[in-house]
Amino acid sequence: MAKTVKGRVGWAVMKKLLKAIPIIGPVFTVGFAGHDIKKKGIVPGAVHVGLDVTPVVGTAKNVVEIFTGDWIPDKDSKRPQPKKPAGASPPSLPRAD
């Protein structure tokens, strides 16, 4: 009898978790929306989040992106790259004596 009760409780918990899966993904997506919008820009980031929040479309998009990479690329960073002075040579290596 204890085995059947444990099996029924386990199955009930599993059913509740399976029902919650379509909710869990969009909750995390909305939680990270600010980061994605900052990284991709306002319009591309909003499109990215909108596609990810849609249950079936978001899942399909993410599965395809595993193999192909991001469909919506990140925006270019605006940090200036350090410039080398003209005519500078690379640092010399220490001599092996």
Into which percentage range does the β-strand content fall?
Answer: under 5%
Stretches where pLDDT falls below 50 for ≥5 residues?
none
The total strand number stands at: 0
Shape, please? elongated
User: Given the structure, what is the number of helices?
Assistant: 4
Largest sheet: none
Mean pLDDT: 78
Order of helices and strands: HHHH
The share of residues in helices is: 55-70%
Computed structural class: mainly alpha
- The value of Rg in angstroms is 25 Å
The CA-CA distance between the termini, in Å, is 81 Å
How are the SSEs ordered, and which strands pair?
Elements: H1 2-31, H2 33-40, H3 42-53, H4 55-68
List keywords for this structure.
0% strand; 97 residues; 66% helix; mainly alpha; 4 helices
In short:
It contains four helices and no strands. It has 97 residues and is an all-alpha fold.
Summarize the structure in words.
It is a single chain. This protein has 97 residues and is mainly α. The protein has a domain of 50 residues. Helix 2 runs antiparallel to helix 3 and helix 3 crosses helix 4. The chain is elongated, with a radius of gyration of 25 Å. The termini are far apart.
